[in-house]
Amino acid sequence: MRYGRVVLAFVGVFLLATVAFGQKVIRLKFASYFPTAASQSKLLEEFCRDVEKRTNGTVKVDFYGGEALLSATKVYDGVVQGIADIGFSHVAYTVGRFPITELADLPHGYPSAWVSTHVVNDFYERYKPEEWKDTKVLWLNTQPPQVLILAKKPVYKLEDLKGLTIRGTGRTSEILKALGAVPKPVPMPETYEAISRGVVEGSMTAIETLKSFRLAEVAKYVTLCYGVADVYTFYVVMNKRTWESLPGEVQKVFDELSKEYREKAARVWNDVDFEGLKAGKEKGVTFINLTEDEMKKWQEAVQPVVEAYLKELEKAGHSRAKLNEMISYIKERTRYWLDRQKELGIKSVTGPKEIRAE
Fold first, then answer.
1. What is the Cα–Cα distance from 345 to 336, expressed in whole angstroms?
2. 3-state SS class at 305
3. For the chain, percent helix, then strand, then coil, each to nearest 5?
4. 3-class SS at 89?
């Protein structure tokens, strides 16, 4: 009798799972501009597989990397329009579209991608900027702090950068101007060719691009200037109508996985810098560390970038007091997550000695 009850209970659970997820397969398209061979793309493909696994095959997500479905600058609009159900890109490709979120991209001196990824997710959860209302935000992450990747000329001090044409998009271009360089907005997939042809003399981007975008093949020097680096806030978003059409149990799966992938993304984007470092060393790239005094000069040079952006938002009608609160929150969470990184013993290529891998 007891055995029969166990069997009936098992059948009941199975039937409930079948009803919860249904038998009709839901097929979704996931668009990304990142090269499919990159670790970041592998992470997104893993997410797609996990969605299928956690929904017992009810939801299948087809991944389109390397701009196969949407280009980097078109991902967000493509998701809103329904060309893709899910999309991955970053806010600097649509400057002005996410003005509040762009506060997190300013040169706050993030020590690592692990820290900044957790900070931007905290920031979104606390303030829920209206600018994301057209989509369902699954998670955010950032790339590692940016550095200067240079084709021919080494940069040891601020004066060495004066007049150099450097690839930079979004707020990075303002930082480059403040440092004395001439910024040029080149999409990341076109940066290799732009450097090799001399269209730009370098790029302000993360060390990981030495491998993921093969910049180690066209660069000779890297200046580690993380203290003045901004970051790009990357997003994984879902079409709002797609989200609302999903059964509640499927939505729950996406919410649970999204929380898990915040941490996974923080780890992957932190670790890819090590891959870039290795690729650069194998190609003979010289890595230049700024002295402490020199780093302070650079940090002083970029402070007007933060103030100028706050004034821009204030003119657009945003409360300066609220903006100041947001900046303070970003700094507070940066300190918090840096302490957590130290406690957990997570190493990074950039950042203070306590977390930097020697």
1. 14
2. helix
3. 55, 15, 30
4. strand
For 148, 281, 285, 297, the CA distances from 157, given in Å and listed in that order, are 12, 22, 18, 9
- Alpha-carbon distance of 192 to 204, in angstroms, equals 13
CA 69 to chain CA mean position, Å: 20
Q: Are 133 and 76 in contact (CB under 8 A)?
A: no
Within 8 A by CB and 6+ apart from 159, the residues are: 180
pLDDT in tens, the chain (358 residues): 444 444 434 334 333 344 345 568 999 999 999 888 888 899 999 999 999 999 999 999 999 999 999 999 999 999 999 999 999 999 988 989 999 999 999 999 899 999 999 999 999 999 999 999 999 999 999 989 999 999 999 999 999 999 999 999 878 898 999 999 999 999 888 999 999 999 999 999 999 899 989 999 999 999 999 889 888 899 999 999 999 999 999 999 999 999 999 999 999 999 989 999 999 999 999 999 888 899 899 999 999 999 999 999 999 999 999 999 999 999 999 999 999 999 999 999 988 888 988 6
Cβ atoms of residues 162 and 180 within 8 Å: yes
Predicted structure pTM score: 0.83
Between β-strands 165-167 and 135-142, what pairing exists: parallel, antiparallel or unpaired?
unpaired
Contact 51, 254 (CB under 8 A): yes
Other Cβ atoms less than 10 A from the Cβ of 153: the count is: 12
What is the C-alpha to C-alpha distance for residues 102 and 28, in angstroms, rounded to an integer? 29
Q: For residue 135, what are the β-bridge partners?
A: 239
Measured between alpha carbons, how far is 302 from 213 in angstroms, rounded to an integer?
27
* Strand pairing class (202-205; 221-224): unpaired
Q: Do residues 141 and 269 make contact, with C-beta atoms less than 8 angstroms apart?
A: yes
